[in-house]
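It would be a great kindness if you could assist me with a short task in structural biology. Thank you for your consideration; the sequence and its tokens are set out here.
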Amino acid sequence: MESPQHFLQVISKLIYQVFFLGALVTIIFAFPVLTSAIESSNGKDLFIQHCSGCHLNGGNIIRRGKNLKLAALKRSGLDNPEAIAEIARIGIGSMSGYEEVLGKGGDQVVANWIWKQAQNAWTQG
């Protein structure tokens, strides 16, 4: 017959393993959400720093029709974040590319944020 102390050790190990497994599952499932939140924040910051001078609230102070509103993006064939990232990276028309100032992967981060804003009619700021 096992002693009560041995029984407590087994239960303690089991509780520790269940807690560890629960923490691991939480981290695995929370990681995409946390990554998305960080990317969104960085996308907003990049946009404010490098894009909002001309594209305040998704508009365009130089050419009104070339704004970042959903209808204008679709009209220009920019109907996904990858297409927007390419423009952010290499530029188009009178807009220069911002590959260097956005940093590695910054074009995609800011494009994802722009796309989300366009889908929400730029109501989230």
